[in-house]
Specification:
It is a single chain. This protein has 522 residues and is an alpha/beta fold. The protein has 2 domains: 375 residues, Rossmann fold; 114 residues, Sandwich (Immunoglobulin-like). Strands 1, 2, 18, 19, 20, 21, 22, 23, 24 and 25 form a 10-stranded mixed β-sheet that branches. Strands 5-6-3-10 form a 4-stranded mixed β-sheet, with no helix packed on it. Strands 13-17-16-15 form a 4-stranded mixed β-sheet, with no helix packed on it. Strand 5 and strand 6 form a beta hairpin. The N terminus is likely disordered.
């Protein structure tokens, strides 16, 4: 069946992510030591080739109408307290949110707490759904026993294999306090040079690639206090993997000296190779040196050449995706952020459609609060440049709705640290509108729907008009749609919008990722 309307039962959580990063801390203690520590000491490096992570035909049908049926296979994991003989269903737009009971959408049990369901649906349709045990009284809820937003799935013209996890059942759990409550209040790290603080440098390279943990011996780090004395014995190491599972691991080295002064933490990426490349990793607060949790997407070849620098795209989510708004545990909050419709590039990666042969790094931070705190964003930028092989002249930022406003806010306040922004369904905050010309050296490509009921298209049009009156180096572009409302961002990131844009705006005639990676502020 075709289901292209957006049914909000009980609510549809729209999220978006983006982010940006910057460099530049030269330390003043022993010269040879400070040179190795310096974030800005990235010279004589190779630029990574610019292969786009997505092509227009990957998730679209070339602008043509989808035809026929597509097979979708769901593999479901349920909580351990799921009754043994439970009948488990999908329920959603396709069964008028009945709560379950239709055998077509009934899962088959394959093993303890594991179920599978295969269905065929119209290519081009959009499914919204949840999992139940036959009624909404026994439907799925989040890890704290609260209702969740609708799951959303786009059906394309190829088979899909979807992993689902139910955290808890409504009738089997009471609403609980968040055991990780308050983690979003982590203080902002200070990456500025301060000669009184101890300094840490890595021993060896920043990224290590191995086939097995049996092949790995951590080289650790070295630390000096402000007097140049070796205090490496005080370094605390976190993040070493405890098993041989493949994946990308962040090992963080931190230190507090005898006078209570903290060094700026530094990290090493350890990649344990598996059968397939890592498409994304969740980085909750406390598992890295960042004050924000984030989702990480790295190229397959990342780390193979220690001096190669990569372009970075920071993606900002929309309102509702803030850590304090979700009020979930640190890891689950990131998972939900990436999994919901509107999850940006992370959602593309979760569904196996992101080409990791691309040179583009994507970091999608989860902001703490709805209120834009551009200083926290800038600290994340500094964190990324310090801890990843990022080209500081090729940093890009984009976002949906509130994330679009964040992107503009950052470009206005830190124009030398971002090469391009891609605001989607957003504009400029009134407090910053008079300073928009600060960003006249930043490349801008904005996207908006003419039928947006949340942020009127006139706001985007006025923003671009004002910006272009600043006589920027490159005239800003604004591409318009009318096939969807406020949430037009995902068709931009998935490139399907290349076949749906209006002639009234600038044409969506170039792969957005190709355009992005052409921009720089050298």
């Amino acid at each position: 069946m075709k289901s292209t309307s957006y049914y909000s039962f009980p609510f549809l959580l729209l999220i978006f992510i983006s982010f940006n990063v910057r460099a530049g801390n030269d330390f003043s203690i022993p010269e040879d030591f400070s040179k190795e520590l310096s974030i800005s000491n990235k010279q004589n490096i190779q630029s990574a080739p610019d292969v786009p992570p997505l092509l227009p035909e990957t998730l679209s049908n070339g602008g043509k109408e989808y035809k026929g049926l597509a097979k979708v296979t769901f593999v479901l994991k349920t909580p351990e307290n799921t009754p043994t003989n439970s009948a488990i269903y999908l329920s959603g737009t396709f069964d008028e949110w009945s709560g379950g009971g239709n055998d077509k959408y009934k899962f088959n049990k394959t093993s303890a707490n594991t179920y599978e369901l295969s269905i065929e649906e119209d290519a081009g349709s959009v499914l919204q759904f949840k999992v139940t045990r036959g009624s909404w009284d026994s439907g799925e809820v989040d890890e704290r026993g609260r209702r969740i937003g609708n799951r959303v799935l786009y059906i394309r013209n190829k088979p899909l294999h979807i992993q689902l996890v139910v955290n808890k059942w409504n009738d089997k759990s009471d609403e609980k306090e968040n055991t990780d409550a308050g983690y979003w209040n982590t203080s902002i790290p200070d990456y500025q040079d301060n000669s009184a603080r101890p300094k840490i440098k890595l021993n060896g390279i920043q990224a290590v690639i191995i086939s097995s943990l049996d092949d790995y011996q951590d080289q650790g780090a070295t630390a000096l206090n402000f007097e140049g004395e070796d205090i490496s014995s005080k370094i605390i190491t976190n993040g070493l993997p405890v098993n041989n599972n493949s994946g990308d691991y962040i090992i963080t080295y931190s230190l507090t000296d005898s006078k209570g002064r903290e060094a700026s933490p530094i990290s090493r990426l350890l990649r344990v190779l598996g059968n397939t490349p890592v498409s994304y990793s969740l980085r909750p607060v406390g598992t890295s040196g960042s004050h924000l949790g984030y989702i990480e997407q790295l190229p397959t070849n990342y780390g193979k050449k220690p001096k190669k620098l990569y372009p970075l795209f920071i993606y900002h989510h929309g309102a509702g995706g803030e850590a304090s708004s979700m009020d979930l545990t640190r890891r689950t909050s990131l998972f939900e952020l990436s999994n919901w419709w509107g999850g940006g590039t992370a959602r593309i990666a979760m569904r196996g459609n992101w080409n990791t042969d691309s040179s583009l790094i994507v970091l999608s931070p989860q902001r703490s609060y709805f209120e834009t705190d551009v200083q926290r964003i800038d600290a994340f930028v500094d964190y990324a440049i310090k801890n990843y092989q990022v080209d500081p002249k090729r940093i890009y930022m984009g976002g949906f709705s509130a994330g679009g406003y964040v992107s503009w806010e950052y470009a206005i306040n830190y124009p030398d640290k971002v090469a391009a922004i891609i605001p989607m369904s957003g504009g400029v905050l009134p407090k910053s509108a008079s300073n928009i010309c600060n960003a006249k050296n930043v490349s801008v490509w904005a996207f908006h729907s003419t039928v947006d009921k949340s942020v009127d298209v006139m706001e985007a049009e006025n923003t671009i008009r004002t910006y272009n009156n600043c006589q920027p180096i490159k005239k800003a572009k604004l591409t318009l749609f009318d096939n969807v409302g406020h949430a037009s961002h995902q068709q931009v990131l998935e490139l399907e919008g290349m076949f749906n844009y209006l002639d009234a705006g600038d044409p969506f005639d170039e792969n957005i990722y190709t355009w992005m990676m052409k921009q720089n502020n050298y």
